[in-house]
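hi! just following up on the protien thing from before. the input was this:
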Amino acid sequence: MSYGQAPFGLREVTVVAAGSTVAVPVAQNFTITERVKSGELAGDDVTKAIVAFTDALTFSIQSGGISLEAYCEMTGRTLATSGTTPNATKTTIALIRFVTLILLVAPSS
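and the predicted 3d structure came back as:
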């Protein structure tokens, strides 16, 4: 059986951004919707050029829980921890940066 012929299950969702890697625990569903912009240049009664590019991706992850670290990576925030256990506090700080999502899939058993 070759790639793409069998249904795949969701084994692990991992967020990779700015050199750090955070796993999303208990991933159940992962959906990506691509928004594409396209255009066409016509002249002399023929199509001369066609262009299409991805304008945005919308993703949805359903999981049994999510760590604050994974949430911060997906939304471009940083996590600052202050104090010591048991009185430690975690604060999210908004930044602008690029996030890459890596989806690992494996055959359903």
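The chain has one domain: 8-107.
Confidence is low (pLDDT under 50) at residues 103-109.
cheers
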